[in-house]
Amino acid sequence: MSTVVLDNVTKVYPGGYLAVDRMNLRAEEGEFLVLLGPSGCGKSTLLRMIAGLEEITAGDLWLGGKLANHLAPRDRDVAMVFQNGALYPHRTVRGNLSFPLEIAKADPALVKERVVELSRALHIDETLDRRPGTLSGGQRQRVAMGRAIVRQPSLFLMDEPLSNLDAGMRTELRMEISSLVRALGVTTIYVTHDQVEALTLADRIAIMNRGVLQDIGTPAQVYNDPATAFTAAFLSSQQLNLLAATVRTPQNQFILLDFGTHQITMPWTDPRAYAVSQHTGMQIIVGIRPDALMPVPERTEGPTFFGRVRTLEYHGHEWLAYLEAGIPAVHVPEPPDRRRGHVNGSQAGMNGKARSMMRRLLSSSAAEEEEVAGPAPSAASGTHRRADLIVRLGSRPVWRAGEHGRVAVDVSRLMLFTQTGARIDPPRR
Ligand SMILES: Nc1ncnc2c1ncn2[C@@H]1O[C@H](COP(=O)(O)OP(=O)(O)O)[C@@H](O)[C@H]1O
Ligand SMILES: [Mg+2]
């Protein structure tokens, strides 16, 4: 069993690409921690640094309370499963599963017993005498998983182990991974870009974007109470409405979120009122999930948005409507891209040089961040557009295209962010 602590762990690749930027997180003993983020955000890089397959440019990695930056991979007691679980093609399933134990010179009788037991748990006991080439993708991933599990490491690292499987197999294996790993109680760090996988599997989810940690918490915390606009958008099953609003406090009577064509008031009794009032006169980003907007009759009192129903979309289990309300929408604010052509990367492997290179990178990206924190993502930077409000209608299309539609706004479910995408009222963690 093992805890994993990352203390400002950073990776700069040769060529100067800052792939992981000052990552801080802690996986508790026996915890199932999911690293979630879009393709290219640095998840595999981070996992490979924990496994010892990639050098850490700066910061510290602690495994089971021991500084592990320079430990050889074989001394870390970790097992890793990759997307394409590479198996030994000329060994049978039995041979693949027993190999790690044979290397460890385990008692052959014990090996035999353990392999049979594990193959039953993974539903591959019928395939023990077959070679990997004759197995389905799902069976191969089960063998890869079994080979990682068989010698009971202190830490499992799994890098998108299900992403090459079809949907049905993915769901099935997802449940099995969950129960198997939990039964073993081994600390697990699981990488995925799939938010459903993350929400269903994790004890806690760490969300990354462009090498930067965006949020960490239980699935319910990061979904309902996201720390950043990126997290809110990435975890939404339907596209999140991200709208630009200006905060006003007319005569200090209440808080007005001014969307241009529409205004929504927030009373001073709202728990977020004080934090929002600190942004009076400034533009903020308001996130609204499509299911926080409820179609209502035309003469409804209270906070509402309205507009022309541009189009309806059938999704099988529900209808979505696109409402032209004339409210300016914004893109998800992103940390700056830190690819640097001018940095001489041939020396990045050398630690002193890499450190000084990283200092240069970090100082220049800090300047860039200030630029972004200024007027962006405003009309000036061209990220503004007037998009439709996406509204969830449920199983019946209550509107027709071209009609006038009105929706009640659940003010308590508005998510309020600064222009750089940080939450205005602090999330509860
Ligand atoms: N060996 C490498 N040299 C240079 N850049 C790399 C290398 N490996 C990965 N990268 C870059 O680092 C970024 C993060 O990659 P990766 O960790 O594989 O992301 P993810 O697993 O989240 O898709 C990507 O932009 C990728 O192109
Ligand atoms: Mg990857």
What's the arrangement of secondary structure elements?
Blueprint: E1 4-13, E2 17-27, E3 32-36, H1 43-51, E4 58-63, E5 66-67, E6 78-81, H2 93-103, H3 108-121, H4 137-149, E7 155-159, H5 167-184, E8 187-192, H6 195-201, E9 204-209, E10 212-217, H7 219-224, H8 229-234, E11 241-248, E12 255-258, E13 263-266, H9 273-277, E14 283-288, E15 293-295, E16 304-314, E17 319-324, E18 328-329, H10 351-373, E19 385-386, E20 389-394, E21 404-409, E22 415-417
Parallel strand pairs: 3-8, 3-9, 6-7, 7-8
Antiparallel strand pairs: 1-2, 1-4, 4-5, 9-10, 11-12, 11-14, 12-13, 14-22, 15-21, 16-17, 16-21, 17-20, 18-19
The structure holds adenosine-5'-diphosphate and magnesium ion.
The site of adenosine-5'-diphosphate has 12 residues, from strand 2 and helix 1.
How would you explain this protein's 3D organization?
There is one protein chain. β16 and β17 (319-324) form a beta hairpin. The chain contains 10 helices and 22 strands. α2 (93-103) crosses α3 (108-121) and α2 runs parallel beside α4 (137-149). With 429 residues, the protein is α+β, with helices and mostly antiparallel strands. The chain folds into 2 domains: 4-224, 3-Layer(aba) Sandwich (Rossmann fold); 234-245 and 282-333 and 377-417, Beta Barrel (OB fold (Dihydrolipoamide Acetyltransferase, E2P)). It has helices at 43-51, 93-103, 108-121, 137-149, 167-184, 195-201, 219-224, 229-234, 273-277, 351-373, and strands at residues 4-13, 17-27, 32-36, 58-63, 66-67, 78-81, 155-159, 187-192, 204-209, 212-217, 241-248, 255-258, 263-266, 283-288, 293-295, 304-314, 319-324, 328-329, 385-386, 389-394, 404-409, 415-417.
